[in-house]
Write a structure and sequence with these properties.
heterodimer, A: about 375 residues, alpha+beta, 10 helices, B: about 160 residues, 2 helices, about 95% helix, about 0% strand, rod-shaped
């Protein structure tokens, strides 16, 4: 029985990292097996992609090909990403990129970035970067955007069914999903919002804090599922954390009262001579707070994904399934830890946002 | 490097989706949920306050009851005391009266006994006088039945007179 379970775990580990399989069907010339590159595999997983890889080898395996939306000078171009992934694989020295076919004609994709090909139908490289090719605005529904849709839909459905319970039953003791969510909602309202923001003003910020908490939490959890609809590293993507932190910053700046701005431009009790030093420090302070929020969430979630992938990779580095006996329990342990981190980071983001908002709307003490 | 650089496409979609989610949840989820939960919280707090108030009232009511009970007890004791006193005095009076009555009866009896006695004595005296006369008559008759006896008697009487 135990043996069977360990086989299943190893099989799961294979399916999870199978996109890192060294077999490359386009790699016709020379050796069949490339050396397994851990950092490339991990980076590939942690970053965004235009396909949702399910199983099989990296090229030619089973994937969901997501729609590509490009805004070029000529207008909006939309096509399936299979036209790129199944296009021509061009090798240009160290670099290799996909040349689009069919509707993707004229576009090339290098490391998940899409460029317009020049008049010779080529990308130009300089020090391993594309140089000279036009990069159209990429509004594609990438793996992370799809995950974002799924996660947000999930949050909405969960909360909408909670709301429906109260609508049909009135203010009674909760049952079902509402019973599970209500303590968390109350926790956010009372222990995050009310505890950090002025008693009279906290109500206005509760919806924002609730949304940010559940958005981060649910998406963190989705990222922990090794296969579709999970596995995307959404909350560990700097664009997402950047947006959330920027939104917090906007809320702080919009709601900051006289007292808040007074502490920045005329810190009380500070000698006039020190003001030229203090004011720039305070202004930098406005931005470091959300910056820390952005980095904290990004780093924690990305680190969790990297650790799990690295532990699973032990098997592939040593090319021996027996290493699964070590790496699978360790990955399991980290996965369980990541479940805690998923909730903890959501709590921290909401908590610190509430703290900063609370400081911005705080009335002067006399 | 592009791991730590925001990507415009994802940023755009995140902004769009998150803002819509915030709007939709605020309108269709947070508002009704928080309203219901807070309403329930308020009603629970109200019920608790009411229970507390009722308890206070009960306490004061109990204190009042105790006071009333105490007063009633005191009153009862007083009534009992009064009753006892009254009964005692009644018994005393009855005793006194009965004593008097008895005395009266005894006195009456004594009076009647005395008068009866006097009457009896008077009757006795009459009877005794009559008997004495009869006896004397008989004795005299006997004494005077013969001559010798008459002479003896006369002598006797004469000696008596002489002695005197």
């Amino acid at each position: 029985m135990k043996k069977a379970i360990s086989y299943i775990l190893v099989a799961l580990a294979f399916s999870m990292t199978s996109f890192a399989s060294p077999v490359n069907e386009h790699d016709k010339e020379g050796h069949d097996e490339k050396e397994f590159d851990v950092s490339e595999m991990i980076m590939h997983h942690v970053k965004d992609a235009h396909e949702w890889h399910l199983w099989g080898p990296e090229h030619g395996g089973t994937s969901i090909y997501l729609p590509i939306i490009l805004k070029t000078k000529e207008g909006i171009e939309t096509f399936s990403s299979s036209n790129l992934y199944h296009g021509e694989l061009v090798h240009d020295g160290e670099n290799h990129y996909y040349k689009g076919v069919g509707p993707a004609e004229g576009f090339g994709m290098f490391h998940e970035k899409i460029y317009e090909l020049d008049e010779h139908g080529k990308l130009h490289f300089e020090n391993g970067h594309v140089h000279g090719n036009i990069k159209p605005m990429d509004l594609s529904i990438t793996k992370n955007v799809t995950s974002l849709f799924i996660g947000s839909f999930l949050v909405f459905i969960i909360m909408f069914s909670c709301a429906k319970f109260y609508k049909t039953n009135g203010a009674v003791a909760p049952k079902g999903i509402a019973k599970f969510m209500e303590p968390i909602i109350l926790f956010v309202q009372d222990d995050i919002a009310k505890a950090n923001i002025n008693e009279k003003k906290y109500k206005k910020f509760v919806p924002f804090l609730l949304t940010i908490f559940f958005f981060i939490w649910i998406n963190n959890l989705l990222g922990m599922i090794p296969i579709f609809p999970g596995s995307a590293n959404l909350t560990g993507n700097i664009s997402v954390t950047f947006f959330l932190a920027a939104l917090t910053l906007v809320i702080i700046l919009v709601n900051g009262n006289k007292n808040y701005w007074g502490h920045i431009f005329a810190p009380p009790g500070v000698p006039k001579l020190l003001l030229p030093i203090m004011i720039p420090i305070e202004i930098v302070g406005i931005f470091t707070k959300p910056f820390a929020l952005m980095i904290r969430l990004f780093a924690n979630i990305t680190a969790g994904h990297i650790i799990i992938l690295a532990l699973i990779s032990i098997i592939f580095i040593n090319k021996n399934v027996a290493w699964g006996a070590l790496s699978v329990p360790m990955a399991l342990f980290i996965s369980i830890l990541e479940l805690l981190v998923a909730a903890l980071q959501a709590y921290l983001f909401a908590m610190l946002s509430a703290l900063f908002i609370g400081a911005a709307v705080e009335e002067a003490h006399h | 490097m592009d791991l730590v650089l925001p990507d415009f496409g994802l940023l755009f979609w995140t902004g769009l989706v998150f803002c819509s989610l915030l709007f939709l949840l605020a309108k269709f989820a947070w508002k009704p949920i928080l309203a219901a939960v807070n309403e329930r919280g308020d009603s629970i707090a109200e019920a608790l306050a009411l229970a507390e108030k009722t308890r206070e009232e009960m306490k004061s009511l109990k204190a009042e009851n105790d006071k009333i009970l105490k007063a009633a007890k005191v009153e009862r004791d007083e009534i009992l005391k009064d009753a006892k006193e009254t009964s005692n005095s009644m018994i005393e009076a009855a005793k006194e009266k009965s004593k008097e009555e008895a005395q009266k009866i005894v006195d009456a009896a004594r009076d009647s006994i005395r008068s009866e006695k006097a009457a009896a004595m008077a009757e006795l005296k009459t009877h005794v006088a009559a008997l004495s006369l009869e006896i004397a008559e008989k004795v005299v008759r006997n004494e005077l039945s013969s001559d010798e006896k008459q002479k003896a008697l006369a002598n006797n009487l004469a000696s008596d007179i002489n002695m005197n």
